[in-house]
Design brief:
The chain has a domain at about 10-90 and about 140-200: NADH Oxidase (3-Layer(aba) Sandwich). It has helices at about 5-25, 50-55, 60-75, 105-110, 125-145, 150-160, 190-200; strands spanning about 40-45, 80-85, 145-150, 170-175. The protein is globular. Strands 1-2-4-3 form a four-stranded antiparallel beta sheet, sandwiched between helices. About 40% of the residues lie in helices and about 10% in strands. By secondary structure, it is of the alpha+beta class.
Length: about 220
């Protein structure tokens, strides 16, 4: 076997790991055996537009802006993103009412409401399927020894940029093969004053709701 460069092996290993994560997500439990999720992967400089989009949100969603700045640092080392999404309408016919409508048919006839984070109203079980798939992918990343974190911010940015198409809700599982785990100190790019100011604005008593949910 010929000698191989360490950096090339790490990148190749990361690529195979993301494929394995995708397989784990695909095989994760689904309600009623309906597997309708969609998945795409992005690596390296392909992630730059996602970083720039999140960073551009600025005052609208400071936490998204922080994650965008963080992603710009991540891609300096081997980094990949698995993007998972699904449509909002129901094909389950459970008529459970969790979406706010009495029947799935009423939900499916409802007008789409577009928002920063996702388009709704949406079937609860569709959202659960996306979450289950993301958890399966993240669990596989952990087993493979990768630094990993699940991001809603980078997920909705990928959807806005149409990296993943024809979905109403999306989430991103980001993995990294850097020299240290980069997901424990993302706030290192903020001063203490800016961190306190942003936290107090976004979570005054943990009751603001969600990113961008309230305009001042």
């Amino acid at each position: 076997m010929p000698l191989q460069n360490m950096e090339k092996m790490i990148q190749a290993g990361l690529d195979r790991a993301v494929e394995t994560m995708t397989l784990a997500a695909w095989n994760s439990f689904r309600f009623e055996k309906r597997n309708t999720i969609k998945m795409v992967t992005a690596t390296g400089e392909e992630l730059t537009p996602v970083s720039e989009y999140c960073f551009s949100l600025g005052d609208m969603a400071p936490l998204a802006a922080r994650d965008g700045r963080h992603l710009a640092q991540l891609i300096k080392e081997p980094t990949a993103m698995l993007i998972i999404g699904d449509k909002r309408k129901s094909d389950f016919n459970y008529n459970c009412g969790a979406c706010g409508f009495k029947t799935c048919a009423e939900l499916n006839r409802s007008e789409k409401v577009e928002s920063l984070t996702a388009d709704g109203p949406s079937c609860m079980f569709k959202n659960l399927n996306v979450s289950i798939a993301a958890n399966a992918a993240a669990a596989m990343a952990y087993k493979l020894g990768l630094h990993c974190r699940v991001f809603s911010t980078l997920g909705f940015a990928a959807r806005a940029l149409q990296l993943i198409e024809d979905v109403d809700v999306s989430i991103a599982v980001v993995v990294n093969a850097g020299k240290k785990d980069p997901f424990f100190d993302r706030h290192e790019y903020w001063t203490t004053e800016h961190w306190d100011e942003t936290f107090n604005k976004e979570f005054p008593t943990f009751n603001r709701g969600f990113i961008g949910a309230v305009e001042e």
